[in-house]
Structure prediction request, 378 residues.
Amino acid sequence: MREHVRIALERARRGLPARSALMVGLRGVGKTVLLDRMKIDAEATGIRTVRIEAPEGRSLPAMLAPEMRLVLLSLSAVAQAKDQAKRGLRALAGFAKALKVKFKDIEVGIDYEPEPGLADNGDLEHDLQSLVEVVGAAAKAAGTVVALFLDELQFVEEEQLAALITALHRAAQRQLPVVLVGAGLPQLRGQMGRAKSYAERLFEFPVVGPLSVDDARIAITKPIEAEHVAIDNLAVNRIVRETQGYPYFLQEWGKHTWDVAATDPIREDDVIAASAITIAALDESFFRVRFDRLTPTEKRYLRAMAELGAGPHRSGDIAGVLDRKVTALGPTRNALIAKGMVWSPSHGDTAFTVPLFDEFMKRIMPHEDWRERMRDER
Prediction:
């Protein structure tokens, strides 16, 4: 993946066609770490970068505007790009002022007065396209690339995604060096397709998943051996089985196993002892922070999914556990998708976006308790 992005950025720098990349995968597979590593790689070659993590409820223009300003200011220090970069700053001023009415969260410093008619129509799709074109022209004049590294893209509204896709498509048509490297949950591919039907031609969608058994074993043993300590095969196998190869869980199990182990080599008993500590730590942080954002109805929906196992599950089966009609549960399912808790691998199927969340739901909402609450609320 890193090599693919490196080649795409170099192609863009040379004025050759380059497809942007959007990594998709569940929580805990390392998308954010990989995104940040690729940003560091790009900066090491003189590429100008923008780094944004899209939270729920914040507009894309508000997130982009301050970062674009920083890029343009840096490009204005390059002699051959100075005039184009200044025009970009005028475009940014017009962009922010024109869209402030619609997107009230836009806050950006204004360095130059707007240029009338440049990115100031008040229409996001048109204005973002104009802004990206001017930024791309400045980058081209400077002999570099502007790489947008955007995380959690599934939280960007589809209308705003459509504007971003249009802007990148126009930049590609004009062979301007602006490239998007993004990451999001698995539903992002469908969101991009709904936003613009040609999105699949414009982007690569590499899937980032759990590590293979061999790679997971290396992830465990290599850092331990670097400290001149050994770990036996039963212990390694136990960690791989508990984590299912998900990088974040490998990291957590490895950390707590190291802390628990008192002898060399590390043994399976150490992993068993560490597992209880690891699960408790994950319950109070990784899992709990997501659980606490849910409404009681959403919690019951996820608990019903957990009753069926890891998934994915048919909507009718989930409704059966809850003794409700599928249509009545549609709004709850949609709300959970919007919150990034579940996704639909195929029509009528629902799956967790957080690995091992089914086991957490059973721990935090024991079988008898949640059943009794359902009965009491009827």
Summary: The longest strand covers residues 178-184.
